[in-house]
Design goal:
Length: 131
């Protein structure tokens, strides 16, 4: 007999990211790390996880993506400053890539011929005193 989805017990490896109505400490730290990226700079998803002190380090990049996807509007996050580790924009063309590129250009970020952010624009993570 199959168990109803609502009755399943979480596995030992499953750790909820946040409880209803309240973000976890790690979610709050990731949000703070995203906010710490200064105008004119970018950070990778994995870099944000590392700065936030995520125990999986850059392996937690997908959690950063999830938080950006679910909280950017509500928390007014500078989502456009977060890119792939190679400087590429993760959003598909026609689904936000153009807007992200334009917002970064307005902050003075320059793209190379491959439409990737030049390495010199990657944030060094030093202004994270509020994390």
């Amino acid at each position: 007999m199959r168990e109803a989805p609502g009755n399943r017990q979480p596995s030992r490896t499953h750790v909820p990211c946040y409880t209803v109505g309240m973000a976890s400490e790690m979610t709050a730290r990731i949000v703070a790390a995203i906010r710490a990226v200064p105008p004119g700079a970018v950070a990778s998803y994995g870099q944000i996880a590392i700065v936030a002190g995520h125990p999986r380090g850059s392996g937690a990049a997908r959690e950063v993506v999830r938080i950006l996807n679910s909280m950017s509007r509500k928390e007014n996050l500078p989502w456009w400053r977060i890119v792939r580790r190679d400087g590429a924009i993760a959003l598909p063309e026609g689904e936000g890539a153009e807007l992200q590129r334009e917002l970064l250009r307005q902050e003075g970020v320059v793209f190379d011929r491959d439409r990737k952010v030049a390495a010199r624009y990657f944030w060094d993570g030093r202004n994270d005193s509020n994390l």
